[in-house]
Amino acid sequence: MRSFTSCLLLLGAATAAAAALASKQPRSDVVTLTEETFHDFVDEHELVLANFYAPWCGWSKRLAPNFEAAATELKNDKIPLVKVDCTKEQPLCSEYEIGAYPTMEVFRGSDSHEEYEGSRRTESIISFMLDESVSASAGSGLFVQTYD
Fold first, then answer.
1. Cα–Cα dist 90/34, whole Å
2. Cβ contacts of 124 within 8 Å, gap of 6 or more
3. Each residue of 65-110: pLDDT tens digit?
4. Any idea of the CA torsion for 84, 97, 128, 122, to the nearest 10 degrees?
5. What is the rounded distance in angstroms from the CA atom of residue 96 to the CA atom of residue 100?
6. What residues pair up with 113 in beta bridges, in sequence order?
7. Could you check whether the bond before residue 80 is cis, i.e. omega within 30 degrees of 0?
8. Which of 93, 107, 136, 141 has the smallest number of CB atoms closer than 10 Å to its CB?
């Protein structure tokens, strides 16, 4: 009986510790997408930056905090940043010919995309995506003042 009670106490303590750890982890502003959710998501948004990564890749790990910070900054501008784990979503990564990790792609719908080739610094990602959002809006009613 004593060992059963000890096991229950240990189980309870482990459950409490896991709950406390989960509540301390910050909520991510990067949207995790799968093969089932990817196309609908990028079709619903005018502009999306996708990070195709592998969790074991050192370069992917180095990009992650910068990508997260950029996502937090860009969410007020309604420019979502998403990530796709290519070790789990191999057919999706093959569809977009992802051959190295991390690869970032700028999407304007699921049929229109181009590789992001800029710096991996937070500020560069933010600046590039804001510039892209302005150029995307230019053809959709953006008023431009001209002087004669």
1. 10
2. 118
3. 999 999 999 999 999 999 999 999 999 999 999 999 999 999 998 8
4. 40
5. 11
6. 107
7. no
8. 141
CB count, 10 Å around CB of 83? 23
* Segment (H or E) for 129: helix 122-138
CA distance 47 to 86: 21
**Which of 82, 74, 78, 17 lies closest to 52, judged by CA?**
82
CA dist list (Å): 125 to 42, 73, 93, 106: 18, 10, 21, 11
Percentage of the chain lying above the pLDDT 90 cut: 69
Q: How confident is the model at residue 25 (pLDDT cuts 50, 70, 90)?
A: low
Task: Match 């799968």 to its residue by tokens.
Answer: 34
Is the CB of residue 84 less than 8 Å from the CB of residue 51?
A: yes
Write the pLDDT tens digit of every residue in 26-61. 689 999 999 999 999 999 999 999 999 999 999 999
